[in-house]
Design a protein that fits this description.
Two copies of one chain form a homodimer.
Chain A: H1 9-20, H2 29-36, H3 40-52, E1 56-58, E2 65-67, H4 70-78, H5 84-87, H6 89-99, E3 102-109, E4 112-119, E5 134-136, H7 141-148, H8 152-159, H9 170-183, E6 186-189, E7 196-204, E8 210-219, H10 225-245
Antiparallel strand pairs in A: 1-2, 3-4, 3-8, 4-5, 6-7, 7-8
Chain A binds a DNA duplex (30 and 30 nucleotides) through helix 3.
DNA sequence: ACCAATGTTTCGTAGAGTGGAACGGAAGAA
DNA sequence: TTCTTCCGTTCCACTCTACGAAACATTGGT
């Protein structure tokens, strides 16, 4: 069943080491080797290689490892001049000013969703949404959008994937997704994080395929079920306009 | 003389493949293998590994390779909450509004400089400065700043490095750098790119060490040698304020 | 001074990565 | 159509590379 592509073990391990740094703070050799489950000397060599190419650097003071500027260089190449995420900022800011809450843009990447763009609310209490964050596809308003409007085959694949939480029955969940597809938007209330709520609507490209999920998120005392129901049309409308903007 | 650290060849090659994508556009297997100078089958396996971890993806239509969203995730982890580049945006915008030109922030990374932050001019004709760009340390106003205020040992190392252009004599160049250090700022006029000019001033941290080069760049008809001389104090002052802001 | 923990180096061996070659498919030219 | 060409993919035997155990070095804590 599992179709294993031929990959290179050393490279795979090196990438795992790199991904360790998504945790955020600086890491020591031993800590890294524990997290990735590899021998110290192996990780040492991997890190030396990553350092040689500038992907990691060592903090002069603490001697710990940290991501290097090469990854900034790479991420700069990720954005193409016609990057939709860049074109949509204006519309997102308009929606942010209208609703006063943080606006995010999520796309599906494999079995997760990734926030590819965000404009932050200006209020004192607000949802902070760093671009690049990778979140599970099983919870959150935009997750449901990304699933509900995905092609049926991929939806099935994802719901029956081993990574899908066993606590969520695929059948009942699929029924929820059908309902969301009918409504045209999805909400979540203190689902992934306590105290936070969100509404999300799909952005379709010219080809009619789902491109991203537009999401409004904030504290659950401001984004109540009632207020979300009220602002839903504005969000769906904004998402539709955005769809018209991208090629 | 050359103290080669022990590195892993396969990983080194994989990172080279990754760096190929800094060129920008999507690449096919054969093209990549030519650029990195490796056999097709080798590159194929490397790409399969990179794809498996989400660092590259294949465009569904063209079947070509492109960077994946994992690099966005990584670059998000690069920014720490106390990231100086983030704290300085406000001051950079102020300078931009004052001078009407694009403002950039460069740090030295090994033998290059990297633009870690930028705010774009609002004028119709302007310098566009993507964050993450990697540029040579041998030309440009901010290069001279980064060299002139570097520790003497690293300055020597860089000027006598094999990567240093042979056309630039280290001795005469060092004399220029001394002059720049005395003046407190540097300029460049159509040095790296025809039609472009820039002024740059150093930003020092609390510890008195050079942190970055603040740079104002724009078209050479607006940034004339005279006008640059005129606005130099404003830039030097802004750089000084910024230095006080960072820890 | 001792101990504990971390980073670094060495080294023999297993087996992983390599590249040549051959295969399959798609796109074009004749 | 048929031939040609280019690209991506798979196979396989050989060699050298990456591996991990263990020893060594260094630092910090008590």
């Amino acid at each position: 069943m599992e179709e294993e592509k031929q990959t290179i073990r050393a490279v795979e391990r090196a990438l795992d080491v790199l991904l360790t740094f998504t945790a955020g703070n600086d890491l020591g050799l031993t800590e890294i080797s524990q997290r990735v489950g590899l021998h110290k000397s192996t990780v040492f060599r991997l890190l030396a290689t990553l350092e040689h190419r500038g992907f990691v650097i060592r903090d002069e003071a603490t001697e710990k490892y940290r991501l290097g500027l090469r990854v900034l260089e790479l991420s700069a190449s990720l954005q193409r001049e016609d990057d939709p995420a860049l074109m949509l900022i204006g519309e997102m800011e308009r929606l942010r000013d209208q609703l006063g809450e943080t606006i995010s843009l999520y796309v599906r990447d494999r079995k997760d969703r990734v926030r590819i763009q965000a404009v932050q609310s200006q209020q004192a209490i607000r949802r902070v949404a760093p671009v690049g964050a990778r979140l599970p596809l099983s919870v959150g308003a935009s997750s449901k959008i990304l699933l509900a409007f995905a092609e049926p085959e991929v939806q099935d694949l994802l719901l029956h994937d081993p990574s899908w939480p066993a606590s969520l029955s695929p059948e009942t969940y699929k029924e929820q997704l059908r309902e969301i597809a009918r409504a045209g938007y999805a909400t979540s209330f203190e689902e992934r994080e306590p105290g936070a709520a969100a509404i999300s609507a799909p952005i379709f490209g010219r080809n009619g395929k789902l491109f991203a999920a537009l999401s409004v998120s904030g504290p659950s005392n401001r984004l109540t079920p009632d207020s979300m129901l009220e602002s839903a049309p504005a969000i769906v409308g904004a998402a539709k306009r955005m769809g018209a903007m991208i090629g």
